[in-house]
Amino acid sequence: MSTDPVVLGSLSEVCGAPLQLFELVAVVGDDGDGDGAGSMAYLCLGRQHISGHSPNYGWSASSSSRSRYTDCAMARSCRTSRGRQDRAVVDEASRSLFLVVIRPGQDTTWRGGDRLLVRSQQRELLLERLALCWQTQQMHERFQVRRLPQARASITSGLRGTGDGFACRVLPQVEPFRGYVQESRRGYSFFVRAGFKSRGRCGRFICEPGWSVRYAAEDIELPGGVEIGIYTEEPRRHAGLVSGGHEDLRTVAIEYRTLLTKELQQLHVRVNRPFLKRMNRTGDIAAWDGWEFLVRSKRHLLACVVLRRKFIPPLCDTMQDVVVTLRCPVDALDVAAVTQSMCDVVREECCFVADSIAPVAEK
Hints:
This protein has 363 residues and is an alpha+beta fold. It contains 5 helices and 21 strands. Strands 4-3-2-1-7-6-5-8 form an 8-stranded mixed beta sheet. Strands 11, 12, 15, 16, 17, 18, 19 and 20 form an 8-stranded antiparallel beta sheet that branches. Strands 9-10-21 form a 3-stranded antiparallel beta sheet. A hairpin with a 5-residue loop joins strand 5 and strand 6. 37% of the residues are buried.
């Protein structure tokens, strides 16, 4: 997915509406026409419409290539094609395929089938944006709070006309370590302990029972209520880092530390140094930089790792900051219980989550 202003400007003129972002995808209908390898098309997301542009697929600069999110138009050869997006099905056998199920409207001349298979390297982010826009338009037009229905299934083998171009290949996956589970957040997956439970969709995970570990010949008991936070910023172009004042990652880490500790009292910075990411679970070709710090206050132990993913494919002109925080409450513990080993356990747990972060997009 990209927000390049030059390309967005050109696609906005073609689609006839302002756009937020675009993605180069491969699409194939369910009617089995063509060679089944899929046609490359620009899938564009605007404020109120989803647009497509591809002469090979029948999407062009006409009203038939643009539709509302609640009345999607994805047709091959029709002047007016309006339908409602019923649900989305995510393919379990790959990391790039998903199926959009279309429910045609009454005035439609749809001849491309009621299912549309899309291949995108940024599948999770694209589905998240589509679901968000769909829900927003539902609230605006119909005064209903609904979510786009999504399901997971092995869909590729049951589709006609998919051919070899959409053949799924089984990719080796790094399974979570013993005692850990895999979670995902805004296009990234990571490992957390099995006791952590998600709190909504804001990237917060809380472990109510706590846990115990053996570290440096000591038995370390971490209390309940430990919270892990995963925060991702919007991708930005490298050219805008200097003008925005975010070129130095250490400066960004200081800003986060100031924001996270503004309500803490009697704090002490125990660790403040560069961080080297030591795990690449999905063969990501982008570069990673990091900075970590550990703060000890009267009520909390706060560990934080600020990661910067640079030269993101396919254009390698964007970067994105990902922040991992771990907050451990210590106000109910004795002062003697908060030892250096306990601080090291909190820091290493946060660093492990940061090490395990990997993009879910297929290379």
